[in-house]
Structure formats: C-alpha cells, structure tokens
Amino acid sequence: MALPGKEATIAEVVSIAVECIDCGRNRWWKPAELKRFGVTAQTPLAALSGRLVCKACRADGLPGGAVSIQAAFIDEQQQRRAEARMLSEREVPLERSRRA
Ligand SMILES: [Zn+2]
C-alpha cells in the first residue's frame, strides 16, 4: 500500500500518454485536457487508468478500459531543457569562429 504523501499526482506531470491495449491507439494528453474525465492536479497517477477509457473502443461497443498510462514528469522536462541549453551554449562559440 502506497503512502498518500508519496504518491505521484497529476500536478507533477507535464503530459500523460494513454495507450489502449485493445486497439493499440495512443495519444498524449495535457493535464488540463484530462479535466473532462474528472482528473485534477490532486488525482494520483495510480487512479488514472480507472478513469480513462479508449474512445475508439467505446465507439465499437467495447469497454475500452484496458489502457496503459505513461507519464512525463515536470522534472524530466526541466532536465531536457537544461540539456538543450547546454548544447546551444556549446554551439555559440562555433558559430562565431565560423563567421570570423
Ligand atoms: Zn482502444
């Protein structure tokens, strides 16, 4: 049993990938787009799979509840931004020397 204080919530993610195990469709959702499913910043990630369903499967008369959830955390994105910044900083002197 996970401790409530340690559980990751929607507030910590930048986007959620929802992949349907039945039909293979997947798409990325922004947390704001998930509000229509009753998902808020306080919703634990563990509770997501129970709330999200595959619309395509629903349209075919299937339950559509077999979804796998993947979350991109805010920390990871900040790390990626920092890496991108490092790369561009490294490229600046090269540009200068090429022009000189
Ligand atoms: Zn599906």
What's the topology here?
Elements: E1 13-20, E2 26-29, H1 48-51, H2 55-59, E3 67-73, H3 74-99
Antiparallel strand pairs: 1-2, 1-3
Bound molecules: zinc ion (ZN).
Short summary of the structure?
The chain is α+β, with helices and mostly antiparallel strands and 100 residues long.
State Rg: 19 Å
Largest sheet report: 3 strands, antiparallel
Give the ligands present.
Answer: zinc ion
Please tally the β strands and state the result. 3
Uncertain ranges: none
Mean pLDDT: 84
Distance between the termini: 63 Å
Across the major sheet, the strand order is 2-1-3
| Proportion of beta-strand residues | 15-25%
- Quickly count the helices: 3
Descriptive labels:
100 residues; alpha+beta; three-stranded antiparallel β-sheet; 3 helices; 3 strands; elongated; binds zinc ion
Protein described:
It is a single chain. The chain has a three-stranded antiparallel beta sheet. It has a domain at 10-73. It starts with 12 loop residues before the first strand and ends with a helix. With 100 residues, the protein is of the alpha+beta class. 35% of the residues lie in helices and 19% in strands. Strand 1 (13-20) and strand 2 form a beta hairpin. It binds zinc ion (ZN). Residues 20, 22-23, 25, 54, 56-57, 64 line the site of zinc ion.
